UniProtKB/TrEMBL annotation, chain A:
<dbReference type="InterPro" id="IPR045595">
    <property type="entry name" value="SufBD_N"/>
</dbReference>
<dbReference type="InterPro" id="IPR010231">
    <property type="entry name" value="SUF_FeS_clus_asmbl_SufB"/>
</dbReference>
<protein>
    <submittedName>
        <fullName>Fe-S cluster assembly protein SufB</fullName>
    </submittedName>
</protein>
<dbReference type="Pfam" id="PF19295">
    <property type="entry name" value="SufBD_N"/>
</dbReference>
<dbReference type="InterPro" id="IPR000825">
    <property type="entry name" value="SUF_FeS_clus_asmbl_SufBD_core"/>
</dbReference>
<feature type="domain" description="SUF system FeS cluster assembly SufBD N-terminal">
    <location>
        <begin position="143"/>
        <end position="199"/>
    </location>
</feature>
<dbReference type="InterPro" id="IPR055346">
    <property type="entry name" value="Fe-S_cluster_assembly_SufBD"/>
</dbReference>
<dbReference type="InterPro" id="IPR037284">
    <property type="entry name" value="SUF_FeS_clus_asmbl_SufBD_sf"/>
</dbReference>
<feature type="domain" description="SUF system FeS cluster assembly SufBD core">
    <location>
        <begin position="208"/>
        <end position="449"/>
    </location>
</feature>
From TrEMBL, chain B:
<dbReference type="InterPro" id="IPR027417">
    <property type="entry name" value="P-loop_NTPase"/>
</dbReference>
<keyword id="KW-0547">Nucleotide-binding</keyword>
<dbReference type="Pfam" id="PF00005">
    <property type="entry name" value="ABC_tran"/>
</dbReference>
<feature type="domain" description="ABC transporter">
    <location>
        <begin position="8"/>
        <end position="252"/>
    </location>
</feature>
<keyword id="KW-0067">ATP-binding</keyword>
<dbReference type="InterPro" id="IPR010230">
    <property type="entry name" value="FeS-cluster_ATPase_SufC"/>
</dbReference>
<comment type="similarity">
    <text>Belongs to the ABC transporter superfamily. Ycf16 family.</text>
</comment>
<protein>
    <submittedName>
        <fullName>Fe-S cluster assembly ATPase SufC</fullName>
    </submittedName>
</protein>
<dbReference type="InterPro" id="IPR003593">
    <property type="entry name" value="AAA+_ATPase"/>
</dbReference>
């Protein structure tokens, strides 16, 4: 069966095409002048430039982390271009009619039509192409509800007070090597503000696309849910199929004020590299949210892409009775490596967190779950439940679990459950004996394994995620 | 020459598992509508026969031929054999956590319909059929929503196998020691289910160690499998003879187990 599965894992990456768009791209290299140019391109105020330069100086003093269970050649940060944008975006198109049709076609091909009439009803999209936001849909409709949904570069100019107050408030500039780099060179991403007591009338979504060669994408997302508000947000990402590795180092910050709720879902499908591990995206991402009193943040991620993933969406449960959730499916195949998990930092009383992590490893890949649950001294009556399950397909892959548990409060309760299983010969045989072909059998078994996580995704995306797994596993069996 | 009226013709079949030959010259002919019981001592090759016919990986055919409905069965993939109408009811049905019975069954039915060039069945129609099948095998409707065999008792698993058979409507059903682990009530339910499916265009091979099951499912023929081939065939009365006398008197040569023992 192993042989069958290995053969079947030779899949095609459907988003691997390159768009023929004329771009303005910085020459590779990184120093203060590059940061000044980025800031100038974006028309940023002085304070923003200073903030970036401060982060850059910090970054120069920092070391690349090496504790994750991933192995890749040292990144030459001088060989990367830090800014690339379609030339047509220079004049800042005012409406969809003015946007380069080739850009619109790119998103259409990816299944994200940007023309509002053709879109999934009830989902507003910010489309980020390399270093710029191409278009943000349904803005007027959202504005009626008082919701701000715009590219972060625009928010810096239009809403400087909000940005100044919250940017870097959840993930400190010096938090880690990649977050510091992101602070210095981030180019675009989404900004969301939900006013007090407002339930965002639509799903919000950002679609990140890397197109240009040898560029890094450094996205920055900031979501603020004011008191008693509610928002559901989804991000998706793809990149062309190239032999060179490309760096994606994002920072996402979530702020859930008292009684607010943020649901953040990710379907990550960056190019994973080929069967032999050539090419693919290095996905080094810092995502963190802070929950004030009675607030709730829920992270759901479906990770199927990237050559190397280093990502730990986390919750700081600062306010009493706040709730953090992390639901994750991480699929690795070929030579992919993923070290992913979460941190649940319980500071407030009666805070609660749930972690459900499902890792699926196939081919010669390695998947690791790394999670920290910390109960601070003040976390009276706090609770955590962690369940991490690994599913192995074939016998050349690896699944690893690294739980870290710290409790400074004797009343806190921490539960951890872990299982490792294989797609068994018996299961495959049962499915095939009933008439299913091996691909369908594997994808059904894997989908069943992931069910608890998929049910957390917004409905439209649960279907998409299931399909994505199916495509990813195409050829897993032969 | 095999009889072209046969649904299944097995000729001089030799097959191995992990280089150990288990089937050693098996011959069997099954006509449409017939029920054949295969009995025999442990280690005779009864379960192996079901696995070889359904094309389980790891079971190698060394020589011989198997024809199902005029087609060369050995030339087909496992799933193609299923789509050609071969159904194996497992002795120990495996669990598939998180995949609902309903989802699994519909995917199976659709895969087989697709192979016949038919459209997928509508969810509403399928649900109706599945509910009826549930009722017939005496399983609560809620079992359709549960994971395949997940947390089922032994008897529930067997009834679940039977439900799959009812929905897939195969031409040839191989019941692999379906009676094992069943109490008398469950056995009756399963037997009734099987009997209700007996028809002129559906055949059964009932593999069993004990005669008990054959009190409920009356076979047309009984064969004794010993050391990889059929050593004696007869009608239903042979089963009673075996029950009374055991298998030892039929063994023409010692089994490997005996040699090793």
């Amino acid at each position: 069966m192993t042989e069958q599965i290995d053969k079947a894992l030779a899949r095609e990456y459907e988003a691997g095409f390159v768009s023929d768009v004329e771009s303005e791209t910085f020459a590779p290299g990184l120093d203060e002048s590059v940061i000044q140019r980025i800031s100038k391109m974006k028309g940023e105020p002085e304070w923003m430039l200073e903030w970036r330069l401060g982060a850059f100086r910090d970054w120069l003093q920092m070391e690349e982390p090496d504790w994750a269970l991933v192995d890749y050649p040292k990144i030459d940060f001088q060989a990367i271009s830090y800014y690339s944008a379609p030339k047509s975006m220079k004049d800042k198109p005012k409406s969809l009619d003015e946007v380069d049709p080739e850009l619109l076609r790119t998103y259409e091909k990816l299944g994200i039509p940007l023309i509002e009439q053709q879109m999934l009803a009830g989902v507003a999209v910010d489309a980020v192409f390399d270093s710029v936001s191409v278009v943000t849909t349904f803005r007027e409709k959202l504005e009626e509800a008082g919701v701000i949904f715009c590219p972060i570069s625009e928010a810096i100019q239009k809403y400087p007070d909000l940005v100044k107050k919250y940017l870097g408030s959840v993930v400190a500039k010096k938090d880690n090597y990649y977050s510091a780099l992101n602070c210095a060179v981030f180019t675009d991403g989404s900004f969301v503000y939900i006013p007090k007591g407002t339930r965002c009338p639509m799903e919000l979504s950002t679609y990140f696309r890397i197109n240009e060669q040898n560029t890094g994408q450094f996205e920055r997302t900031l979501i603020i849910a004011d008191e008693g508000s509610h928002v559901s947000y989804l991000e998706g990402c793809t990149a062309p199929q190239r032999d060179e590795n490309q760096l994606h180092a994002a920072v996402v910050e979530l702020v859930a004020m008292d009684d607010a709720e943020i649901k953040y879902s990710t379907v990550q499908n960056w190019y994973p590299g080929d069967e032999d591990g050539k090419g693919g995206i290095y996905n080094f991402v810092t995502k963190r949210g802070v929950c004030h009193t009675n607030a709730k943040i829920s992270w759901t991620q479906v990770e199927t892409g990237s050559a190397v993933t280093w990502k730990y969406p986390s919750c700081v449960l600062k306010g009493d009775n706040s709730v953090g959730e992390f639901y994750s499916v991480a699929l690795t195949r070929g030579r992919q490596q993923a070290d992913t998990g979460t941190k649940m930092i319980h500071l407030g009383k009666n805070t609660k967190s749930t972690i459900i992590a499902k890792g699926i490893s196939a081919g010669k890949s390695n998947g690791s779950y790394r999670g920290l649950v910390r109960m601070a001294a003040g976390a009276e009556g706090a609770r955590n439940f962690t369940q991490c399950d690994s599913l192995l397909i074939g016998d050349q892959c690896g699944a690893h679990t690294f739980p870290y548990v710290e409790s400074r409060n004797p009343s806190a309760i921490i539960e951890h459950e872990a299982t490792t299983s294989k797609v068994s010969d018996e299961q495959m045989f049962l499915c095939q004996q009933r008439g299913l072909d091996p691909e369908k059998a594997v994808s059904m078994i894997v989908n069943g394994f992931c069910k608890e996580v998929f049910k957390e995704l917004p409905m439209e995306f649960a279907v998409e995620a299931g399909k994505l797994l199916e495509i990813s596993l195409e050829g897993s069996v032969g | 020459m095999s009889n072209s009226n046969n649904l299944l013709t097995i000729k001089d079949l030799y097959a191995s598992v992990e280089e150990k030959q288990i089937l050693k010259g098996l011959d069997l002919e099954v006509k449409p509508g017939e029920v054949h019981a295969i009995m025999g001592p442990n280690g005779a090759g009864k379960s192996t026969m079901g696995y070889v016919l359904s094309g389980r990986e790891g079971y190698t055919v060394d020589s011989g031929s198997v024809v199902l409905g005029g087609e060369d069965l050995l030339d087909m993939e496992t799933e193609e054999r299923a789509r050609a109408g071969l159904f194996l009811a497992f002795q120990y049905p495996v669990e598939i956590p998180g995949v609902s019975n309903l989802e699994f069954l519909k995917a199976s039915v659709d895969a087989q319909r697709e192979a016949r060039g038919e459209e997928a069945i509508s969810s509403a129609d399928f649900l109706k059929e599945a509910k009826a099948a549930c009722k017939k095998v005496d399983l609560p409707i809620s079992f359709l929503k549960r994971g395949v065999n997940e947390g089922f008792s032994g008897g529930e698993k067997k009834r679940n196998e039977l439900m799959q058979m009812l929905l897939l409507q195969p031409k040839l059903c191989i019941l692999d020691e379906t009676d094992s682990g069943l109490d008398i009530d469950a056995l009756q339910v399963v037997a009734e289910g099987v009997n209700s499916q007996r028809s002129s265009d559906r055949s059964f091979i009932v593999v069993t160690h004990y005669q008990r099951l054959l009190d409920y499912i009356k076979p047309d023929f009984v064969h004794v499998l010993s050391n990889g081939k059929i050593v004696k065939s007869g009608d239903a009365s042979l089963a009673q003879e075996l029950e009374a006398q055991g298998y030892a008197w039929l063994q023409t040569e010692p089994t490997e187990d005996e040699l090793e023992g």
